[in-house]
Each structure stands twice: as structure tokens, then as C-alpha cells.
Amino acid sequence: MTDALGNLVRFTLVPGQHYDTVGVAPLLEQADFRGLPADRAFDVHWIVDAIRAQGACVVIPQRKNRLDRRPFDGALFKARHLIENFFCKLKEFKRIAMRSEKTDRSFEAMIYLVGAIINSR
């Protein structure tokens, strides 16, 4: 999760064989935001309901097979490139891209360190 400027706020590590939606619940619990742009993979009922329960705007494009259609703000969705840009900057660091750390804890620490370096630029 990044802020409006594309700076790292928090993240969760999930195993590679799980869906991305597994790590969303801990991110939404303590978050304070007005809108949450995400891609179609996060167009799940419980995520949309959790975002609406916090009084935030849902900025997630709908899947084609979704029966209950909701309004979508395409202009606000364009801000999602900040998140993608952060991932590109994160992967410039070889230790992150190659996952050189042996434990999850040291990998998390390296991500926070690199996030701080990126934010200080």
C-alpha cells in the first residue's frame, strides 16, 4: 500500500502460490484513506464491502462477469500508476528483485530499508 505520492506505507508478504487478495485484509484494517485504486484482481465482494464500510471510494475496475455493476471513476484510477512505479523502483535493487534474503523477516526488513531509500530521493 502506498500513499498518494507513491511512497510505501505498509505491505504484507504472501506466499507465491496464494491469490493476492489473501494479504489485503491486514492492510485495510488500520488504513485511513479516501479511495483505494487497485486492479481487477481485487474486485471481490468482501474487499469492496470493507472499503465502503470505511467510507472510502472504491476505484477498482469491475470484472466482466460481475452481475451487480457499480459506478467507476476512470480518472481516479489513473493514479494507480504511482503504485506500479513504486514496484519498478523497488525492483531496481538487486536484493529485492532476486529475493536474496533467506528468511521472510529479513526480506521484509530489506523492503522497508529500500522503501526508505526510495522515499528519501
Describe the structure in your own words.
The chain has 121 residues and is mainly α. It has helices at 24-29, 45-53, 74-77, 81-90, 94-97, 104-120, and strands at 35-37, 57-59. The protein is built from 6 helices and 2 strands, in the order H-E-H-E-H-H-H-H. A two-stranded parallel ribbon has the order 1-2. Helix 2 links the parallel strand 1 (35-37) and strand 2. The two termini are 19 Å apart. The relative contact order is 0.15. InterPro entries: Transposase_11. GO terms for molecular function: DNA binding; transposase activity.
Q: Element order, helices and strands?
A: HEHEHHHH
Globular, elongated, flat, extended or rod-shaped: what is the shape? globular
**Estimated radius of gyration:** 15 Å
List how many beta strands DSSP finds: 2
Runs in which pLDDT lies below 50 for 5 or more consecutive residues are: none
Largest sheet: 2 strands, parallel
Summarize the structure.
Strands 1-2 form a two-stranded parallel ribbon.
What does the secondary structure layout of this molecule look like, with pairings?
Elements: H1 24-29, E1 35-37, H2 45-53, E2 57-59, H3 74-77, H4 81-90, H5 94-97, H6 104-120
Parallel strand pairs: 1-2
Structural key phrases:
single chain, 121 residues, mainly alpha, 2 strands
